[in-house]
């Protein structure tokens, strides 16, 4: 009971990836064996899961056009921040100090949170790369303010530079897929010790993991330009948040696959809008024909390109702040959870087990 099957759209490695939380199957708490949950613990868990369910519902786009616009992506990463912060609150409510955790829990927490920080860095790298593309785009628009043939030729060159940049691939994003594979390992491992509080924590952490892997999978697919990077997570119905998650995953993943099947080079709405106007404008100014005044249709396209470029720039800036916020949330949780360990337990007694250095 409670077994979770996770299937992915890409092939598995010959060796199964390390589990996200190898503390046992959190759904064994529903089994008659082991500790029973008190009404108080059950209320804590249900409150956490209900909040997560409502949070996932808020990510459901009102229309497919909202999927993978930068505002939706910013909302998604903000949701992750809130969910990760909720875990700290949950641990406080459970009165389950980290000092009482098994050493392997600490080891795995360091490993997992470290991988999330790597993913954040990769996303920040990609957003920085896209932001750099704004410079040739803005310069091209500036050159198009003139009716000079030479300026038109220069604008074409700058638009070529922009197209080459946005069509290139970031190797750091490509590595995110293998990181995600390591975060979706099987949960069907030895159960946790006979601790009702531990089982509540594990089930809550599973919800955090599912939302995190889903959002990071969507971002990775969007930034990599391939639907093969998408993950499909099958979640047991015993969770209060399961229906909201399944609906969200189905809608978002399906739309991403449809867009890529149409041959689009990107599924990012604002980036696609800029690319559309660039493709429309480029033939009209290529060759640098001398004119005394820009023709009205071309002038309109230039104005639309300028508006689209500004919207793209603003969207990137918002998402940069969102990803940075998620990075800080993960870093804060590492520090908050591991600081008591540094003082309560000798954690540096084995090679590679320096928590102080890892937190830094």
TrEMBL record:
<dbReference type="GO" id="GO:0016020">
    <property type="term" value="C:membrane"/>
</dbReference>
<protein>
    <recommendedName>
        <fullName>Protein BPS1, chloroplastic-like</fullName>
    </recommendedName>
</protein>
<keyword id="KW-0812">Transmembrane</keyword>
<keyword id="KW-0472">Membrane</keyword>
<keyword id="KW-1133">Transmembrane helix</keyword>
<dbReference type="InterPro" id="IPR008511">
    <property type="entry name" value="ROH1-like"/>
</dbReference>
<dbReference type="Pfam" id="PF05633">
    <property type="entry name" value="ROH1-like"/>
</dbReference>
<comment type="similarity">
    <text>Belongs to the ROH1 family.</text>
</comment>
